[in-house]
Design brief:
By secondary structure, the chain is an alpha+beta fold. It contains one helix and four strands, in the order ββββα. It has one domain. The protein is 16% helix and 20% strand. The chain has a four-stranded antiparallel sheet with strand order 1-2-3-4. A hairpin with an 8-residue loop joins β3 and β4. The radius of gyration is 12 Å and the shape is globular. The model has no long low-confidence stretch (mean pLDDT 81).
Length: 64
Amino acid sequence: MSTIPDISRAEWAKSSYSGDGGDNCLEWAPSVSPGIIPVRDSKTPDGPVLAFSPAAWAAFVRSV
């Protein structure tokens, strides 16, 4: 059994801080798997995805 969530059908949401310029776009998939928050760069949707625990994501958001 794999612990890696299937993100192939994820519905990605763009950060409200990304703006309209498209230069600094961050997307996250809120409903992929409980306990995992996948994040990607919207300019490279086929690129790497970072996976955060809810606690790690909250700490990241507080820091930036």
